[in-house]
């Protein structure tokens, strides 16, 4: 059995340089995290936010907080 969160949605910016993952934890709570991808990191995604420890009871709550926390993320990207 895995203890890693299940990514429900991964949204990239227009340049595929930033990403937000919306996920569900094994305990049924939800969260999100922001990542970036730079050439000096050989194209690997690197966590840039410190959001993943926040706990939400619904996916909708996690998405709403992501929208208010991540400047480049737009509501239409989550629909």
Overview of the molecule:
- With 79 residues, the chain is of the alpha+beta class.
- The protein has one domain.
- It is 14% helix and 32% strand.
- Strands 1-2-3-4 form a 4-stranded antiparallel beta sheet.
- Strand 1 and strand 2 (18-24) form a beta hairpin.
- The chain starts with 5 loop residues before the first strand and ends in a 10-residue tail after the last helix.
- The relative contact order is 0.21.
- The model has no long low-confidence stretch (mean pLDDT 92).
Task: Give the arrangement of secondary structure elements.
Layout: E1 6-12, E2 18-24, E3 30-37, E4 45-47, H1 59-69
Give the overall shape.
globular
Helix coverage percent: 10-25%
Q: Secondary-structure element sequence?
A: EEEEH
Instruction: Determine Rg (CA atoms, Å).
Output: 12 Å
Q: Count the helices. How many? A: 1
In short:
Helix content is 14%, strand content 32%.
